[in-house]
Amino acid sequence: xxxxxxxxxxxxxxxxxxxxxxxxxxxxxxxxxxxxxxxxxxxxxxxxxxxxxxxxxxxxxxxxxxxxxxxxxxxxxxxxxxxxxxxxxxxxxxxxxxxxxxxxxxxxxxxxxxxxxxxxxxxxxxxxxxxxxxxxxxxxxxxxxxxxxxxxxxxxxxxxxxxxxxxxxxxxxxxxxxxxxxxxxxxxxxxxxxxxxxxxxxxxxxxxxxxxxxxxxxxxxxxxxxxxxxxxxxxxxxxxxxxxxxxxxxxxxxxxxxxxxxxxxxxxxxxxxxxxxxxxxxxxxxxxxxxxxxxxxxxxxxxxxxxxxxxxxxxxxxxxxxxxxxxxxxxxxxxxxxxxxxxxxxxxxxxxxxxxxxxxxxxxxxxxxxxxxxxxxxxxxxxxxxxxxxxxxxxxxxxxxxxxxxxxxxxxxxxxxxxxxxxxxxxxxxxxxxxxxxxxxxxxxxxxxxxxxxxxxxxxxxxxxxxxxxxxxxxxxxxxxxxxxxxxxxxxxxxxxxxxxxxxxxxxxxxxxxxxxxxxxxxxxxxxxxxxxx
Length: 534
Hints:
Layout (H helix, E strand, L loop, with lengths): L1 E6 L9 E6 L6 E2 L4 E6 L3 E6 L4 E6 L6 E2 L4 E7 L2 H6 L13 H6 L6 E6 L9 E6 L6 E2 L4 E6 L4 E5 L4 E6 L6 E2 L4 E7 L37 E4 L9 H10 L17 H17 L30 H16 L2 E9 L1 H9 L1 H7 L6 H14 L5 E3 L6 E3 L5 E3 L1 E3 L2 E3 L2 E2 L7 H16 L13 E5 L18 E5 L3 E6 L4 E14 L5 H16 L7
């Protein structure tokens, strides 16, 4: 038996990368290529595979540690040929090939052309290129955007994995790409990236093992870490989990993640599938509206001239989500009017200051601050139902989604930590995220993590509507058009500017008394924003 070490391979020059998951434990027997740890940069997460087989003897890192290339990860016990490869040759009989690694190390770090390829994009196939951010001859840094792809969920930027000069591009707008598709060639220098040997297929791989092989044949390259674009396609998971989900036919968007930072684990997928299999074997109905008959097909052309217009991906996804939410969530809607007379007077008094800042102050930031205060005052609204049907997840943060009407359909970007931000900060963030949504630039992460949603019709009309809860959230606020109404003050009717509000909620998590307290606090804060200081 011999002890071997497994270290962090080449990870594109990143330094101080956090360990967010450890996939093995002491005593496990691992094969070459098995995932051992998961690292996360500010761009993506990546699984680090074992470059040696054996039994895990010691784990040299823990969750939260910061590591870089060559940091020690594991010690493994190996035997046979694997152990022999680690044992130095006897001094009296040096192997003829021992000089080879020395000459390789002495080679100058000349410019190298490497292929830029599409990383793991959640198993999506044939994803459209909607924007090319660089051209031949451009100098790029690691992390700079190369192209923008659009899935049926959102758009995503594909970054450069290393710094260098763009030699050529192999894609154009409208092309359909998948994981591993070639984007173009990048000329790197100074060892910023490692090119595959000329005799091997053109592919960017991890660094070769640092231990010289005692044989004359070339050392085998260590398996490359598999990049996983963080939260691609609304799901935060590694390639192994995605593969399991594909094998089982599971929609990962419906599976809650229990790993660090909500990461989806294999056990999450298995836990999701288990009750479905049990129900199917027992003959029990699976629910979800499966017993509802479809609307019959109709030939509308026989009634007059028609035009069939293909739905966009976003509209199709929105339709599916609305159907799922309406069928699975027992909705209750309550209505009330909020007096915004004083709020509007205060907002109009800030117009000059807003113009100086180059922004426009709408009622939405005020409503968001009031909703944040109500979510804190009535925490029964700031929850989600756990997928096991036996627990409720109480959230300690306040992230609020805002429905934005875009040319591609309805999008709901999320503004984070609303309770901790001022009106001007919220105004700038709302304007920026709404523009990003209308330009089709939203990333999956921009639409995740919401606690509550606001859907505002603004001045477009209407006295009220029934908004559909955006599950897994449990409540949504609909805002309609404000209008002057006579309000009795105990002595006389006086004109007040009243804002109609519609509050829909999931009756499994929220009862009428909870909703009454939430609405009372919300309308009181909207009527007098000074209450936000209490």
